[in-house]
Amino acid sequence: MVNGVFFSSIASYIQDHRVRHYCLEVPFDPPEEYPELPFIEGTNKSNIVYKMIRELLQQLNLDNENFGTPRWNPFKDIIKPGNTVLIKPNLVTHKHYLGKDALYSTIVHGSIIRPIIDYVYIALQGNGSIIIADNPIESADFKSLMEFTQIQNLADNLIKRGYEGLKVIDLRPRVSKEEKKGNFYYESLPGDPLGYVTIDLGKDSLFAELDEDGEIHYYTLADRTVDHIDPKYNEKSKTDDYHNPSTHRYIVSRSVLNADTIINVAKMKSHCKAGISLALKNMIGTVYEKDCMPHHRPGLPPEGDSFPIYPATHYIMARKIYSALKRCLQMHRMPGVKTFRNWLQKNKILVGQQIEHGNWKGNDTIWRTILDLNRIAVYADKDGKMRDMPQRSQFALIDGIVSQQGEGPMAGKSVSTSVIVGGFNPVLVDALAIKTMGLDYQLFKSVSKAREIEKWKLLNGKEPDLSFPGIEVPNLRFELSKGWR
User: What is the dihedral of CA 60, 62, 66, 68, to 10 degrees?
Assistant: First the structure.
């Protein structure tokens, strides 16, 4: 059964129940010969995902008059010869605690990237650059990511076929590693070859409305100077250096700002902090320094949003004991950590067993970071100066072939949903994706608050109702993380 919906050439979805997984044969050639792709050297009948993405572009009425002919160029209105195009996949991490099969639900696979490269290549007409880039979490092994997704292998194959100007970049300036003694350390990486730029949104940041509330601390789990175990810890963080009443700064990869077009390739996932992780949330991976992104605020509402209620004392004490014991046993290379961890898991004491660190629907912080970064992606020029007019075009695609629900974005359950959502505005694409997930967009501030932005808007008054009334979609009945249920 194949379903699709078309809505005013703005956002569209396609679902094919025959497609339960990805094509795994590099370089993920199309399943048949298409007239607009005379340069393709072969076909792969099993790669139905390619066909789905092609049909999605058709449903959006892109270059409709030329569809079915060698002249079809669906991205011609947003990509011109000589442009630099950034393809931004959601990569995140190289592992999932449930194993390899579950990892497919966490990150974007190379077979999703292949048709995008081809249609960008057509639009560039042999003159321009295609950059595939992301900034995964600091502990992610990029080589393992590339081996699993086959993205680097795909790029190498296409370069041999003559795709000039195609490259893959790990945007991270460093990677964190753990010693056998349990201590963490950093290794430097080449990072973004164009460097990074600091952008201060100041009073126009969505955090500015909180500046009147007095001293506020902003936390992220990437900041190891903060005691993330003590629920009543409320001290200055590294993130406070970037966000305070005098400044609201983000450090962004210059390769992102140097792009003429961003192709945002997101994953359909639930998210413990933001509720959902779709196209808007994917812009988190454009940032150089993780510490500059507030994720939650210490304490309870209304001053903080880390907890709906404080965890029980025995829960905190057991976590502290585990942390200390783990370090001690690792330092002396002694067994026992796994046994104790299993006991904690059984008694629901490990991280994630109770609602903390902003992992609930009361999180009033991370949506501001998400929308600030999306405004930067649209309005910041190549030097990081915010302009009144959009500086680059966008296209958003959400990979929902294998999705993740429950305790996402990295510990949820894999589910085959066989759907792809796409369009030109990430807010509208997210809203349509949320509807296909069987959810209400008003629950998620990263989407519902987008219409309220007055400066550097992500929507205008002509955009449709974000609930897409009258549009029939598959009701996937997504399960959110427990803090959002």
Answer: -50
Distances (CA, A) of 243 to 210, 285, 339, 378: 10, 19, 41, 21
Whether 424 shows a pLDDT value over 90: the answer reads yes
Phi, psi angles (nearest 5°) of residue 22: -100, 155
Residues 241, 279, 49, 125, CA torsion sign: negative
**What's the whole-model pTM score?**
0.93
pLDDT for 2: 45
Which of the four pLDDT bands, split at 50, 70 and 90, describes residue 354? confident
* Domain contains 335: no
Contact 286, 111 (CB under 8 A): no
The full DSSP string for 99-136 is -HHHHTTTS--HHHHHHHHHHHHHHHTT-SEEEEEE--
What radius of gyration, in Å, describes the C-alpha atoms of the chain? 22
**Number of folded domains that form the chain:** 1
In a domain, residue 340? The reply is no
Neighbours of 341 (CB within 10 A): 15
pLDDT at 338: 63
Answer whether residue 265 is part of any domain: yes
